[in-house]
Amino acid sequence: MHYAGLKPEEVMGVVNFSGGWYPYGPVTTPYYANAGRGAGDKVKQLWLYADNDRLYKEELIREYHHAFAAAGGSARFELLHGVPGDGHLLRLYPERWRAIADEYLSSLDR
Q1: How far apart are CA 51 and CA 59, in angstroms?
Q2: Which residues pair with 87 in a beta bridge?
Q3: Between residues 14 and 2, the one the model is more confident about
Q4: What distance in Å separates the CA atoms of residue 48 and residue 75, rounded to the nearest whole number?
Q5: Is residue 75 classed exposed, middle or buried when 0-12, 13-18 and 19+ CB atoms within 10 A define those classes?
Q6: Is the pLDDT of residue 21 over 80?
Q7: DSSP string of 31-87?
Q8: Is 97 exposed, middle or buried (0-12, 13-18, 19+ CB in 10 A)?
Q9: Can you tell me whether residue 23 is helix, strand or coil?
Q10: Rounded distance, CA 104 to CA 99, Å?
Q11: DSSP annotation of 20
């Protein structure tokens, strides 16, 4: 996300799995805003989070997305349910996100 904000011309898209900077949630929000300003609508992003993430509560995840979007960033935000155990390990359960990711990846310009 950060790199896409710095060099949007070099990035086709971003898939964010449970991104953040634990335990510095409130400090991280400005980084999301900066990434949104830089990437704007030039870089499509897919953000995948789980509602049972042990590091990032839903309120904080939504704060990140709001800061990113308010700064001009474009991201499809998906809060997934039913991830076994710790939702922060969402990436290990492709059956929960594969269809969403496939759709997103298919939408990118090549």
Answers
A1: 10
A2: none
A3: 14
A4: 10
A5: buried
A6: no
A7: HHHHHHHHHTTTSEEEEEEETT-SSS-HHHHHHHHHHHHHTT--EEEEEE---SS-G
A8: buried
A9: coil
A10: 9
A11: -
Do the bridges between strand 44-50 and strand 13-17 make them parallel or antiparallel, or are there none, so unpaired? parallel
CA distance 49 to 81: 9
Domains and CATH numbers, the chain: 2-107 (3.40.50.1820)
**Residue 26 near residue 64 (C-beta atoms within 8 A):** no
Q: Which residues contact 40 (CB under 8 A, 6 or more apart)?
A: 8, 72, 73, 74
**pLDDT tens figures, 22-74:** 666 666 778 888 888 888 889 999 999 999 999 988 998 898 899 899 999 99
Number of Cβ within a 10 Å radius of residue 98: 10
